[in-house]
Amino acid sequence: MGSTLLMDLLALPAFTDNYIWMLHNGREALVIDPGDAAPVQQALSDAGLTLSAILVTHHHMDHVGGLAALQREGLPVYGPRHEDIAGITHPLGEGDTLTWRGLDMQVLDVPGHTRGHIAYFLPDGLGSLDPDPLLFAGDTLFSAGCGRVFDGTIEQLYDSLSKLSRLPDATRICCTHEYTLGNLRFAQAVEPHNPALVSHTAHCEALRAQSLPTLPSTLRVEKGINPFLRCTQSDVVASALQHGAEDARPQAIFAALRQWKNRF
Ligand SMILES: [Zn+2]
């Protein structure tokens, strides 16, 4: 088994603030959530790669809009079992696994943003040379923020983020949007005295000034800066109670933060 080719991870910018994540080994590529085919086709052609699998996290058009143009006979397209998406060849849900070019991936049900949203977790990362775990989170978890509730529920989203927060701290989080600086402004409104927010904001501003992605983040970083993962911290609880939280239960704090962020 085993090619010794080093696996590479790329964030392909799409639309105004989406990323289409690509894994490749120098010959073959896999993409996650190709909302637009053009940036994928460009990246394949630039590096001389063949697309050999597609993963989808949920049904929104900015995640699936490129499927039709990328599909071809025999190309596997993995996606959520509980959503209606044209072109899925391998429907998946919680507990399912897949292997692509030696990389093991586990499927997690993470409903909330949409009813059937799934995420892909690579417990061994990109192999022995790059072993920190990797998560393709779709629109569930963003750096310093989280997805909005569309056809799922706020309770589902809370449970899904709790589930993701139990992954290893070293897990790299590949989110689908470059929302980080806007999310950090909200996080600072929630926690004006969190020093980790100040240093992380400076770090991300420097990256954006060079048009570089602020992603992937890590779960360790997110636990220090993401208010949606900090619903038991006293400052977060106090702010949320001032912004409509019914009580101090983490679920109520989370729901109030999500509402507050919607109008922020
Ligand atoms: Zn979405």
Considering the chains and any ligands shown, give keywords for the structure.
Metallo-B-lactamas; 9 helices; 33% helix; 264 residues; HAGH_C; globular; six-stranded mixed beta sheet; binds zinc ion; metal-binding; alpha/beta; Metallo-beta-lactamase, Chain A
General description of the model:
This protein is of the alpha/beta class. The protein is 33% helix and 24% strand. The chain has a six-stranded mixed β-sheet, with helices on one face. A six-stranded mixed β-sheet has the order 7-8-9-10-13-14. A two-stranded antiparallel sheet has the order 11-12. A hairpin with an 8-residue loop joins β8 and β9. The structure holds zinc ion. Residues 58, 60, 113, 139 line the site of zinc ion (ZN).
